[in-house]
Design goal:
Layout (H helix, E strand, L loop, with lengths): L13 H6 L7 E2 L11 H12 L12 H11 L11 E4 L1 H13 L5 E6 L5 H7 L3 E6 L10 H7 L4 E7 L11 H13 L3 E5 L21 E6 L12 E4 L4 H13 L4 H12 L3 H22 L4 E2 L8 E2 L2 E2 L5 H10 L2 E2 L1 E2 L11 E4 L4 H19 L1
Parallel strand pairs: 1-12, 3-4, 3-5, 5-6, 6-7
Antiparallel strand pairs: 2-8, 7-8, 9-11, 10-14, 13-14
Length: about 375
């Protein structure tokens, strides 16, 4: 066997490659993280944890009072969730990785959204499984359609990945969408791996979760976006025994235990004042309305109003690849991400993050408008 064979064809994501083109002059509308800082009481809790001596190893699945707080938050979706159904991880990235390592064997098929989160396909391939890509189409508001799923499912399919609110599209599933996909999964005896890390960043509606009556769900979440603590690498997953016990074992063999001081800060985030979250989401909504309005004023650009997360995913009419389009923007000091970085179905789209100031959004779209005029000739 060739050393490192499981990494054949696995490269850094297109997001990271675009980020590395950033210069001091660049307006960065490519980065998917809030431009806010964690609230003062959260920062203080981290400092207090260090000063109080919480600097040693902790439980493999996370400290108990934090897991209870997370369970309490999840009980609005499923009433029987307990602290024993939760494993705390080093970001949702690690939660997704140990999920793939546990669920999949070589020869398995996995249904994945296209366009979708850039880590999903590589993680499934590293586990030895085959990605089967289901389309998310602008005409369906980037919501999975059961008819498309039925065309792809095979006897070897073991799971379907979902992401709502969605990165990169900003699509948000309704309760009817959740029920339809859950019924599809139940009909084919599939696991649902549900990435809900943007569950608190939703506009004009309530978040709907796949946590419900169907037991074959692994709920992936994080506090990174909600509390502007992306660099703290805090994530968690929720599922029922005996799967949760197996995932805890994988957690041990990958990280031994999650970061202990950060967990104390996460507990403060969960149980403390939430006004800063509301203020941040309201500001994102203002920015969303600005960027969508400005994009739709450009001839040849068509942008749906995102219902969640902080990404706009406009479609364009120009005869240029998404990668070349994004590179042309980068040469003009605007960093954005080509839609094809998120899958073949993302071709013909550009992703903008509006987790940036109103001023920078206006500057960025000014540049984008100039690039569009240049491309049109």
């Amino acid at each position: 066997m060739v050393v490192g064979a499981r990494l054949e064809g696995i490269q850094l994501s297109g997001i990271r490659k675009m980020f590395e083109l950033t210069t001091e002059r660049s307006v960065n509308l490519g980065l998917g993280e809030p431009d806010f800082q964690p609230a003062q009481h959260i920062r203080q809790a981290l400092s207090d944890a260090v000063e109080k001596g919480y600097n040693k190893y902790g439980p493999t699945s996370g400290i108990s009072n934090l897991r209870e707080a997370l369970a309490n938050g999840a009980r609005k979706y499923r009433s029987d969730i307990t602290a024993n159904d939760i494993v705390v991880t080093t970001g949702s990235t690690q939660a997704l990785m140990i999920t793939a390592q546990y669920l999949f064997n070589p020869g398995d098929d996995v249904l994945l959204p296209d366009p979708g989160f850039v880590l999903n396909v590589p993680q499934v391939r590293i586990a030895g499984a085959r990605p089967l890509m289901y389309p998310l189409k602008q005409e369906h508001e980037f919501i999975p359609q059961v008819d498309d799923l039925e065309k792809l499912v095979t006897p070897k399919t073991v799971a379907i990945y979902t992401n709502s609110p969605s990165n990169p599209t900003g699509g948000v599933m309704s309760i009817e969408d959740i029920r339809a996909i859950t019924q599809f999964a139940e009909d084919h005896d599939l696991w649902i791996v549900s990435d809900e890390v943007y569950d608190q960043i939703v506009y004009d509606r309530e978040h709907q979760s796949f946590l419900g009556d169907y037991d074959k769900v692994i709920h992936i979440n994080s506090l990174s976006k909600t509390y502007a603590m992306t660099g703290w690498r805090f994530g968690f997953l929720i599922t029922k025994a005996p799967i949760i016990d197996k995932l805890s074992i994988l957690n041990y063999y990958t990280i031994a235990c999650p970061n202990v001081p950060t967990q104390h800060a996460a507990l403060a985030a969960m149980t403390g004042p939430q006004e800063h979250v509301k203020q941040m989401v309201n500001e994102f909504k203002r920015r969303r309305d600005l960027i969508v309005d400005r994009l739709n004023r450009i001839d040849g650009i068509h942008c749906l109003v995102p219902k969640g997360a902080f990404y706009a995913f406009p479609k364009y009419d120009f005869n240029i690849s998404a990668l070349d389009f994004a590179m042309e923007c980068a040469r003009s000091d605007l960093i954005c991400t080509h839609g094809s970085a998120f899958g073949d179905a993302g071709e013909g789209h550009i992703r903008f993050s509006y987790a940036n100031s109103m001023d920078n959004i206006n500057k960025g779209i000014d540049i984008f408008e100039e690039v569009c005029e240049k491309i049109k000739g």
